[in-house]
Design brief:
β8, α8 (about 235-245) and β9 (about 250-255) form a beta-alpha-beta unit. This protein has helices at about 55-70, 80-95, 95-105, 110-135, 160-175, 190-200, 215-220, 235-245, 270-280, 300-315, 335-350, 380-385, 400-410, 425-430, 465-470; strands at about 25, 30, 35-40, 45-50, 150-155, 175-180, 205-210, 230, 250-255, 260-265, 295-300, 355, 370-375, 390-395, 415-420, 435-440, 460. The chain is an alpha/beta fold. The protein contains 15 helices and 17 strands. The strands form four sheets. Strands 12-13-14-11-10-15-16 form a seven-stranded mixed beta sheet, with helices on both faces. It has a six-stranded mixed beta sheet with strand order 7-6-5-8-9-17, with helices on both faces. A two-stranded antiparallel ribbon has the order 1-2. The protein has two domains: about 25-255 and about 455-470, Aldehyde Dehydrogenase, Chain A, domain 1 (3-Layer(aba) Sandwich); about 260-450, 3-Layer(aba) Sandwich (Aldehyde Dehydrogenase, Chain A, domain 2), CATH 3.40.309. The structure holds NADPH dihydro-nicotinamide-adenine-dinucleotide phosphate (NDP). NADPH dihydro-nicotinamide-adenine-dinucleotide phosphate binds near residues 241 and 256.
Length: about 475
Amino acid sequence: MNFEYAAAPESRSVVKIDPVYGHFINGKWVNGSSHFNSINPATEEVLSQIALGTAADVDAAVKAARNAFDKSWSKLSGRERGKYLYRIARIMQERAREFAVLETLDNGKPIRESRDVDVPLSAAHFFYHAGWADKLEYAGVDTTTAPHGVVGQIIPWNFPLLMLAWKVAPALATGNTVVLKPAETTSLTALLFAQVCQQAGLPDGVVNIVTGDGSTGSAIVNHPGIDKIAFTGSTEVGKLIARALAPTNKSLTLELGGKGANIVFGDAAIDETVEGIVNGIFFNQGHVCCAGSRLILQESIADEVLEKLKRRMDKIRVGDPLDKNTDLGAINSAEQLAKIRELTAAGEAEGAGRWSANCELPTNGFWFAPTIFTGVTQAHRIAREEIFGPVLSVLTFRTPAEAIEKANNTPFGLSAGIWSEKGSNILWATQQLRAGVIWANTFNKFDPASPFGGYKESGWGREGGRHGLSAYLKGSAK
Ligand code: NDP
């Protein structure tokens, strides 16, 4: 029997979007000199005009952050800082629906995910770090050291509010002040967060938000008044930043790309594993740095897993991100869609077998059907490069050693998954894998207490947990 779902759209009336936004500097809104459109990627509707930050805007924000660091924030006790973080966390919870709807409109992700993952996890990061603010001496970090001072934070478009929370919460808990730049296509929840800072009575200049493009990010990176940069985004830009900071005293953490291996052993529970594979690659349209984008299947079960996976993929509901039934929303931008199309065309040209779910895609906006490639070899571009879309590359193995060899054969080292009924298999594989985060019989689970980060070209340093705190204190491990 086929069940049809009636549409269940979330109302957007809870959200008020201004036609034009400025920058949030020193606790006030400052007009931008020029603007660009922020669109809803599901419809291409223009949502608002966002200010393009110049070097002068960045300079004003850095000066405000320095002044706030010297005059107010660094003078407060951890207990006082913690109170502000608790207040921010509670306001985010109170305004959760507003944040979720706005995130979905601006990013294209399903409301089910912004409502149940992005927004609650963002508030959880503020609660978690509020708890540490007055207990840093028990966190195992070197508390004889001081905060860096002014931290420049540059974030991507895949989890706009959550990446802001990952960056801002530990910076404030450890006594730093912040200049943050959201991604060009997804500034709106960061601008709503600025309103939350005002509502929480956060001292002026502690959090500054300058919107803009790569040139604005570069102005933050190269500003002499910045003490530390925290960046999440592409490996390409991460390398540019590392080069720019090499001759300086600025501290740096980088959270970059990935090509996560999801390894399925022959003894895995197949139905649960299929759900985990779907969650691993189709969560957030595959715009996830730690996505399980390479499925590495033991040959003995490959046919059965692939058959069940295709059946399951045909049931993925693609469409209006504001509909509460939707599983897979819009691709974030025309540029990202072009990149996904280019890489999938390369997969076909190099000889891999392409299969896409049978779904109807909306005519407006940016969309890509859930897709898998079989017969992928390690030399194929779709096995080596980050596609950052709802596309899974399937490889097979005969022996556990071959699985590990294939999993580690990547310039990245961010995440991996292992599916097996045997604890000894899992522990053995975990020790062999070069990945910062490894999930066993699950995938894409996040918690503020759990450090996150990668090896090799996936970046430097950890975010979250006690390890993430030390990156915001001078002299502690980077
Ligand atoms: P980028 O790395 O270009 O963007 C990340 C952030 O850095 C954005 O805020 C961006 O601004 C900013 N930025 C861009 N250029 C510079 C610069 N020279 N100096 C300082 N900051 C800069 O990623 P894209 O959005 O272009 O995505 C490209 C690819 O990167 C994706 O296809 C995906 O493969 C990967 N990616 C990986 C992410 C991850 O979490 N690992 C997240 C996002 C992308 P602006 O948005 O205005 O360009």
